[in-house]
């Protein structure tokens, strides 16, 4: 047993230090980023925010809505191949280049991924997603998927330390998904005692990935636009959002009426609700590691994504970053013990 004494930080532990800026307006800030991915060699341009691959967030409807803003959606893995065929048939190449095809690591998952990717050459991203990215099985599966799809962009995770980021990139991942336990409906840290404060995880994992020419996704822990900015400031190339994009018309969550008000059900993908729905219940060898909550129904996602993007643009103006790519170079974080004055509550 050993104890690491170094301080690890979450988003609530820091604020940006403002700097002189020549920018006159947030409208001057460019949020689009251009990437060329390490193994696939593919190029992509867009706003590197991703709707999470949760079945009450990452829907086909969400993908169509967010693609208008050049924002990505990781489609949840519970759609059938026929569902995908209908989506591909009815949507443009512009929408398809902003979606990720999510998969687990079973043989059935592998075959399903092959069937989906065969539907269109415009499908570019594969998201290999398991809760514990420290399994050797994931490394072997990434190698297998890279061999089968040499020209596709492969994301794999989740992990929180640089050593595993390097191993996954060397195995064939272009992008590594970072985050264990920070999500709003994740209870992994409570059930297992395992986790890593998200900002420190992003800083350490970005350093490891960029040294090898890879990228990372900061996945989880964002509760407001300022947190999204902090993730980018810490070095995340992409930021994945679940709870911030849940509860919307396009989220396709279950609508619930209660006391005359409308709510939408939102739950973690390792929760009792998710396993009852997709796996016939919680297996007797495991515990549920997610909670189920009711969110006030929020209508179309349009206003929310505009608000998030506007917040990130505003961050950039405060620190003098004309492009999102420059934000991490312009970032100085200051440690704080308070974030905001919420005597009247939070919006």
- Helicity range: 25-40%
Give the beta-strand count.
Answer: 14
Report the top-level CATH class.
Alpha Beta
Which geometry do the CA atoms define? globular
Fraction of residues in β-strands: 15-25%
Q: Using the CA coordinates, give the radius of gyration.
A: 19 Å
First and last CA, distance = 43 Å
Q: What is the count of distinct domains?
A: 1
Mean pLDDT: 93
State the order of secondary-structure elements, H for helix, E for strand. Answer: EEEHEHHEHEHEHEHHEHEEEHEHHE
Can you list the strand order of the major beta sheet?
A: 3-4-5-6-7-8-9-10
Per CATH, which architecture? Alpha-Beta Barrel
* Total count of helical runs of at least 4 residues: 12
Runs with pLDDT <50, length 5+? none
Sheet with most strands: 8 strands, parallel, barrel
**Name of the CATH homologous superfamily:** Aldolase class I
**What structural category do the secondary elements indicate?**
alpha/beta
Q: What is the third-level CATH name, the topology?
A: TIM Barrel
Function: Catalyzes the irreversible NADPH-dependent deamination of GMP to IMP. It functions in the conversion of nucleobase, nucleoside and nucleotide derivatives of G to A nucleotides, and in maintaining the intracellular balance of A and G nucleotides.
Catalytic activity: IMP + NH4(+) + NADP(+) = GMP + NADPH + 2 H(+)
Binding site for NADP(+): 108-131, 216-239
GO cellular component, one term: cytosol
